[in-house]
């Protein structure tokens, strides 16, 4: 009896393969039964309604390299009905350690065409729109037409990534973004969460900071790794002295403002990022319940920081009542997390942190000290522990000693470096 059942299944399989082969060679649209048989496992997982939503969805993937190629591959294999691939770049030999489908024969051809050619052999009934173009703010709207169900950001250039995320966020287009898979090796540290929660990733930090300058601090799901750098781990490779001697190293990039240094990538990690993104897109479209771990809500912490800073300003003005400062909880979060990276500028500690004025108030004859004195700005404050702030307020802000005398030149140097860095990021407001 068992042999008969096995034989029947094998026969059905052969019949399906023959029919599918015939349609691949004569008709790009096989019968619905064939399509549903190929999607049978997704069908029982997501349910009839869930799979229907996936099959009628339209997903745009911007960036079709190591991460984006895996997203595209799994979305098409899982039933997404229409997909648009956007990438300006070509397949290189070094792409082959992480690209989902590219082969030696594809080297030198556009990434979007390599993807389309291979994926049409898997799902010939899916509409694949390959755009060998660069997404940018000037022409980006045309590449996002058609009311996409979801957009996937798999770009590795910071400014282009920020522009795409900001555009989708402000135009109410659902989007998920991949942060940096380079220099990462621990698959257990890969997470999905809000961009405000992403840590231990330079690409994430720079993206998040520039978005905050534009007024976007939350509401964008991202895939990121919490793996910390350390001794013996891969890091961004510097340019050789020979390249610097040639001058104008910015001209070495594929395009202006694109990175020119080599980023070490373990080929498995971009695929893990891509598979996480694909899972998120599929479950979100299908309405399948997900329970990602949430980061801590730090709004109360930021609120307390502003209240304590206002209290300090009142004390420095002789306990003047009703002092209000022109900073809010969002500003506090930006200063604490982005400018000072969540650590005391003095000790590097990351607990019991508060904001404090860095330099003393100007003399009375140079400014008004009343309740309407709004001279304090984000650039006037630094992050310290509560104990350090007590000492700073007593010796620097009230006694008039210089910060360098109290904390030393190294701490002053860190503060100046942070201010200089912030001057750079302020351009993205």
Automatic annotation (TrEMBL):
<dbReference type="InterPro" id="IPR035985">
    <property type="entry name" value="Ubiquitin-activating_enz"/>
</dbReference>
<keyword id="KW-0812">Transmembrane</keyword>
<feature type="domain" description="THIF-type NAD/FAD binding fold">
    <location>
        <begin position="41"/>
        <end position="295"/>
    </location>
</feature>
<dbReference type="Pfam" id="PF00899">
    <property type="entry name" value="ThiF"/>
</dbReference>
<dbReference type="InterPro" id="IPR045886">
    <property type="entry name" value="ThiF/MoeB/HesA"/>
</dbReference>
<comment type="function">
    <text>Catalyzes the ATP-dependent dehydration of threonylcarbamoyladenosine at position 37 (t(6)A37) to form cyclic t(6)A37 (ct(6)A37) in tRNAs that read codons beginning with adenine.</text>
</comment>
<dbReference type="GO" id="GO:0005741">
    <property type="term" value="C:mitochondrial outer membrane"/>
</dbReference>
<dbReference type="GO" id="GO:0061503">
    <property type="term" value="F:tRNA threonylcarbamoyladenosine dehydratase"/>
</dbReference>
<dbReference type="GO" id="GO:0008641">
    <property type="term" value="F:ubiquitin-like modifier activating enzyme activity"/>
</dbReference>
<keyword id="KW-0472">Membrane</keyword>
<dbReference type="GO" id="GO:0005524">
    <property type="term" value="F:ATP binding"/>
</dbReference>
<dbReference type="InterPro" id="IPR000594">
    <property type="entry name" value="ThiF_NAD_FAD-bd"/>
</dbReference>
<keyword id="KW-1133">Transmembrane helix</keyword>
<keyword id="KW-1000">Mitochondrion outer membrane</keyword>
<keyword id="KW-0496">Mitochondrion</keyword>
<keyword id="KW-0436">Ligase</keyword>
<keyword id="KW-0547">Nucleotide-binding</keyword>
<protein>
    <recommendedName>
        <fullName>THIF-type NAD/FAD binding fold domain-containing protein</fullName>
    </recommendedName>
</protein>
<keyword id="KW-0067">ATP-binding</keyword>
<comment type="similarity">
    <text>Belongs to the HesA/MoeB/ThiF family.</text>
</comment>
<dbReference type="GO" id="GO:0061504">
    <property type="term" value="P:cyclic threonylcarbamoyladenosine biosynthetic process"/>
</dbReference>
């Amino acid at each position: 009896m068992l042999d008969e059942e096995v034989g029947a299944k094998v026969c059905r399989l052969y019949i399906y393969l023959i029919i599918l082969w015939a349609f691949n060679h004569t008709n790009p649209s096989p019968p619905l039964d064939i399509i549903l048989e190929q999607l049978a496992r997704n069908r029982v997982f997501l349910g009839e309604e869930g799979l229907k939503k996936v099959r009628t969805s339209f997903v745009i993937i911007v960036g079709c390299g190591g991460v984006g190629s895996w997203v595209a591959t799994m979305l098409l294999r899982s039933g997404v009905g229409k997909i648009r691939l956007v990438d300006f770049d070509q397949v290189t030999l070094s792409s082959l350690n992480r690209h989902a489908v590219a082969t030696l024969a594809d080297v030198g051809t556009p990434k979007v065409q390599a993807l389309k050619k291979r994926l049409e052999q898997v799902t010939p009934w899916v509409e694949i729109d390959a755009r060998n173009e660069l997404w940018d703010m000037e022409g980006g709207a045309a590449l996002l037409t058609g009311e996409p169900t979801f957009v996937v950001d798999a770009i590795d250039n910071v400014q282009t990534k920020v522009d795409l995320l900001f555009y989708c966020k402000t135009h109410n287009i659902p989007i998920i973004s991949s942060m940096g898979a380079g220099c990462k090796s621990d698959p257990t540290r890969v997470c999905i969460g809000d961009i405000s929660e992403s840590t231990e990733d330079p690409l994430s930090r720079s993206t998040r900071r520039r978005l905050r300058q534009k007024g976007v601090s939350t509401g964008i799901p991202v895939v990121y790794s919490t793996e910390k750098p350390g001794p013996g781990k891969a890091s961004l490779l510097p340019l050789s002295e020979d390249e610097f001697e040639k001058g104008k190293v910015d001209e070495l990039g594929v395009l202006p403002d694109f990175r020119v240094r080599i980023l070490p990538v373990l080929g498995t990690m971009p695929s893990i990022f891509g598979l996480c993104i694909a899972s998120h897109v599929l479950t979100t479209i299908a309405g399948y319940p997900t329970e990602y771990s949430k980061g801590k809500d730090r709004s109360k912490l930021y609120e307390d920081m502003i209240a304590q800073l206002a209290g300090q300003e009142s004390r420095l003005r002789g306990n003047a009542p009703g002092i209000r400062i022109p900073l809010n909880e969002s500003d506090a979060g930006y200063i604490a997390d982005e400018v000072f990276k969540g650590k005391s500028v003095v000790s590097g500690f990351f607990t019991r942190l508060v904001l404090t004025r860095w330099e003393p108030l100007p003399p009375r004859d140079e400014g008004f000290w009343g309740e309407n004195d709004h001279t304090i700005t984000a650039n006037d404050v630094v992050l310290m522990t509560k104990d350090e702030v007590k000492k700073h307020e007593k010796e620097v802000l009230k006694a008039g000693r210089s910060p360098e005398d109290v904390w030393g030149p190294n701490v002053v140097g860190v503060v100046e470096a942070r201010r200089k860095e912030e001057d750079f990021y302020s351009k993205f407001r």
